[in-house]
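for the recovery benchmark. tokens below, seq after
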């Protein structure tokens, strides 16, 4: 039996690319042998020898000589970045609408009244819809909460230097009302925002709290302070991309045209570790809820921590945050459940014990009331392995 030879033209300098590759490797480990040609530098470096490799399949980013590669007639999966989706092919696309919404909800939960978004501008011939979609979703969620958003766009990475960009960014950051919750379109831009804050004499998170997207632990850790980020499940997308390519190489004619790279929760770090509410009692209640997210929390207990009656606490939540104290408790508790569902293989019954619920049925009812689906259905959709994790 002939072993398929597959080219992986995916860079590995960022966590997203490494996670995609890990997902591909995981699929092959469970479903049969492939022979790989991997070029970490991507298509441009692979191009001189690509025609001579006798490939049966390709997974590549949408850069450079994409049309020339597709002209080979070899089954291919395209990972979107700088272009619109390629008609007639399987496209790997990030769920930018959910990413923007999660960023907004995290910053709203910090109590901010002022918000900003820092994205990227398209270079000539480039289509950075992912940044625009995240911005639109971020602003829409803020609009629903009765908040405005100020926006700024950097030039794309290949069209600028940080030296040229930083002065304009610093001027914009200084113009924002403070304290401000800011979302960057990805972790790289978020790190630049934090550096610009430092150069401009702005404190993070006291003046500006910053959240990125991709949850690249290296980039987030190199930021000072470490940066909060929306976790995006590239590993799962790599697994699914390999599965679709396997079917294409086997002669399948009907396969999904799109593989969604899903986002499901925020990883909080020091860059957003602030409660930007002037009401000290409300801030104490919010801190209590955050600090006890892995325990059973009642509204009465939060009110006690705030030094208020339950009725007074509820009034302040409604007036200042536009939602109830119970809504806040449910949000932080379900975020804990969601993270365990995505990052671990723990049974729901074990999660119930870890998080202070009575039993698995209680967890399921609680989670479904907020997320609209059962924990097992959520894990099937968002878990790091493919649906069911079948071997």
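predicted aa per position
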């Amino acid at each position: 039996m002939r072993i398929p030879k597959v080219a992986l033209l995916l860079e590995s300098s960022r966590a997203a690319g490494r996670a995609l590759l890990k997902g591909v490797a995981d699929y092959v480990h469970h479903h049969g042998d492939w022979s790989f040609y991997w070029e970490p530098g991507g298509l441009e470096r692979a191009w001189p020898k690509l025609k001579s490799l006798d490939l049966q399949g390709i997974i590549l980013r949408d850069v450079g000589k994409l049309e020339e590669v597709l002209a080979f007639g070899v089954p291919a999966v395209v990972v979107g970045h700088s272009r619109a989706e390629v008609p007639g092919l399987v496209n790997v696309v990030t769920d930018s609408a959910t990413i923007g919404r999660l960023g907004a909800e995290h910053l709203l939960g910090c109590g901010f009244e002022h918000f900003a978004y820092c994205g990227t501008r398209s270079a000539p011939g480039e289509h950075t819809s992912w940044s625009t979609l995240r911005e639109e979703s971020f602003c829409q969620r803020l609009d629903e909460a009765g908040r405005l958003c100020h926006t700024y766009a950097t030039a794309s990475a290949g069209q600028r230097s940080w030296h040229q960009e930083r002065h304009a960014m610093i001027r914009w950051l200084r113009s924002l009302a403070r304290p401000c919750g800011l979302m960057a379109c990805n972790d790289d831009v978020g790190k630049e925002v934090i550096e610009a804050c430092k150069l401009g004499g702005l404190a993070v998170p006291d003046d500006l709290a910053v959240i990125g997207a991709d949850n690249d632990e290296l980039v987030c850790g190199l930021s000072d302070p470490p940066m909060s980020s929306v976790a995006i499940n590239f590993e799962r997308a790599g697994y699914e991309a390999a599965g679709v390519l396997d079917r294409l190489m086997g002669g399948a004619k009907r396969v999904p045209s799109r593989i969604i790279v899903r986002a499901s929760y925020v990883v909080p770090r020091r860059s957003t570790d602030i409660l930007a509410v002037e009401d000290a009692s409300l801030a104490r209640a919010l801190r209590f809820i955050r600090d006890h997210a892995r325990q059973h929390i009642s509204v009465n207990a939060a009110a006690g921590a705030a030094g208020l009656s339950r009725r007074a606490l509820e009034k302040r939540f409604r007036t200042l945050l536009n939602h109830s104290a119970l809504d806040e408790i449910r949000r932080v508790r379900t975020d804990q459940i969601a993270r365990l569902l995505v990052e671990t293989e723990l049974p729901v019954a074990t999660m119930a014990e870890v998080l202070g619920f009575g039993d698995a049925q209680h967890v399921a009812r609680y989670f479904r009331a907020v997320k609209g689906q059962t924990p097992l259905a959520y894990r099937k959709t968002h878990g790091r392995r493919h649906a069911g994790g079948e071997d």
